[in-house]
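Lab notebook, design round three. We kept the backbone fixed and only want residue identities now. Task for the bench partner: fill in a sequence for the structure below.
Input structure tokens:
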């Protein structure tokens, strides 16, 4: 259930994502008045691989990354870079053994902040297959 640390590490250690957001990568909600652009990630579910005689050895964890920016072009650019960093990633990161991360889908939105102002959002959905210690 600690996949957030893995998601953060993959994004923060990617030079293309880092060039755009530095360390502005947040779990669940961004720090108030965060500078744009930034990324928010959130887990949305887990699908354990049930076994007859013990705990799940492999979990499929669903998560989203939300890429926020002042302009549509910046949001798309950040989302593209985040997808490249995460999609098909495998390895051990932040003490978590990631078998694979698979891109599932995306969506976009515009959130109104105030009069004539708003923020562009690109939402990416992934599944992270985590090998659990036995």
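Proposed sequence:
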């Amino acid at each position: 259930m600690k996949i957030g640390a893995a998601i953060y590490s993959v994004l923060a250690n990617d030079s293309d994502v880092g060039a755009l957001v530095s360390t502005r990568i947040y779990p669940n909600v961004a720090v108030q008045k965060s500078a744009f652009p930034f990324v928010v990630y959130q887990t949305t579910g887990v699908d354990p691989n049930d076994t007859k005689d013990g705990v799940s050895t492999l979990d499929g964890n669903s998560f989203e990354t939300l890429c926020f920016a002042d302009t549509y072009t910046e949001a798309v650019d950040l989302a593209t870079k985040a997808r490249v960093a995460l999609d098909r990633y495998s390895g051990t990161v932040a003490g978590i053994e990631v078998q694979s991360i698979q891109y599932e889908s995306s969506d976009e939105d515009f959130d109104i902040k105030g009069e004539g102002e708003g923020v562009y959002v690109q939402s990416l959905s992934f599944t992270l297959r985590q090998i659990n210690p036995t």
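Keep this in mind before ordering anything: Residues 57 and 133 are 7 Å apart (CA to CA).
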